[in-house]
Request: fold
Amino acid sequence: MEFKMTTIWQQAARTRAAAIACGALKPIATESLEICEHGIPFVIRVLSSLRDKSQALERLHQAADRHHNPFLTPEPELLVSEVPPAHRCILNKFCVIDRHLLLVTRDFEPQSRVLNRQDFAALATCMRQGPALAFFNGGPDAGASQPHKHLQMLPLDKTAAPPFGPLLDDAATRGLGQVPQLPFRHRLVALPQKLLQDTTAAAEWLNGRYRSALDALGIEVSAGSDVRQAYNLLLTARWMLLVPRLGEKSGEVSVNALGFVGWLLVKRRKQAECLQAQGLMDTLIAVSGSGANRNG
Reply:
């Protein structure tokens, strides 16, 4: 399937409809709890039925099977598009958000490997087709469930905007390296306008700023190009956010990259209540560390 630059999200919608019809795609339904903590908005998604809990467990069992790699030979029904020269775009089989896309390397690369210009070029190629949030879980302690290198993308619109989006947009507009209202460790980089329109220039610029942000956070890259500490990366057309990780879980709740834009996922309502009791922002600090919030 050839990559059509103008139809990535339309193709995702068509592929999704066909994959649901044949049973290849297994969306996980949730109910959303909107919570405001000290003026900061969060959304906690709770699995909404026993069926969805069962599918979530199936997802975990597949992730735990290190001999099964769903990205090396993806199900044809889930393939959205090839993304030359080195990636392919597939639907997330167990998705919580509609048109959740995975951008995977065609050949195996470990998820611990540092991102490179080809990865950022593939992101730019896809993200210039419409508003999107891309993210990367750099290692198991960052929420990665598969060892094959893969980035992820979600379409952005008014009904699917991340809770922290306005805070991040404002800080990027002001040229801040940290968001004053977000006390967990992080590094924010503002993107020039229309950067993603030029794939080659975007790949070079993003790769350079990404490596600089890793350095600023004290995250080392080995001689073999493996990143020595888990981290999360999030990217929109306006900003790039990096967050170092101390661990995957706070209590029983796993936190991946989306936690750092205000989206958390739990299996049971009781877990949501426990998160609220301990503090949602404190949960993020627990898995990433406390930041100094200097405008660096």
Summary: Residues 1-6 have pLDDT under 50 and may be disordered. Residues 11 and 184 are 37 Å apart (CA to CA). The helical segments are 8-22, 50-64, 117-127, 165-173, 199-216, 269-278, 280-288. The first strand starts at residue 30 and ends at 37.
